[in-house]
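Quarterly update from the structural biology core.
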Amino acid sequence: MNSQLKILLLKALKFVVILAILDLGLGMAVRMLFFTQSSGKFYRMNRTFHKAKADVFIFGSSRSNHHYHPEVLNKELGLTSYNVGAQGQQILFQTTVQKIILERIHPKLLVLDVSPDWMYKSSEANDNLSELRPFYFGYPDIIGPVLSVQSHIQKLWLHSIAYQYNSTIVHIIYYRLKPQLDVDGYVPLLHFMSPQDFQEQRKADSIRFSGMKPKSFDTVYENALKRFLQNALSLKIKVVMVYSPDYWGAKTEGNPSAEKINKIGRAFDIPVIDYTEDPFFRSHPGFFNDIHHLNDDGAREFSKQIAQKLKAYL
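Predicted structure, tokenized:
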């Protein structure tokens, strides 16, 4: 080996070492900030994985996060409950979170708030799985395979501590300056949808979905839903699936994705409760923050109603 090649290799080695030191230093600093948060979605995820204990856990997307009020459920059911709903997250994320929770605690009941379109392919849902990255080091065998849905080289990138936390800095700063209220994971929405809000949001939704290509199913999501149900039933934990209220747009009837969800529910003998087009809530726009989410008043009313139905399964 000539001297020039040795010098080149030595420089390359030094460069790699410097990168590793920078990655370790920056990554550990951000990690320390990350796990001292006291507000926001990552704080709730950390609490969910490591501390939350309850008889009833509620899973789902933002609709779950804003629709199920633990204080109301606790009073009506005579049990403790915890809301682990997360904005923008679908069944693959929920099954991952469930598996981590069930390693630590075995609740009496799991409520899975499902959305009618969950079985369709979604690049957005796959992209949102990146929110699991900061917790990879604690659960590599559970989270690693899920993140590989985004890219097969994810495991290589996840060796970088800085990479695990590089998308959390803005979130950490924002919620330190503006803490977010939550009640055992539930985040209340306080806006009352006006007729003008409804018209504007309906128009925006119509534009957003117009001209979209026909949707196709994703077997990864179908298998994730089956695992969610099987994980619970194998531990003798009851499960109920719920489509919570929606003011406009969402429906299960005639929706192939919802039909697939319902078919899977029947195969596992899981109750499915459908509020998507419930006439009571659709006749009370004052219960909605926007066309797809209940406000705090609506969440309290819905939590009372759903609690009565859940009692039958407990």
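The two ends are 74 Å apart (CA to CA).
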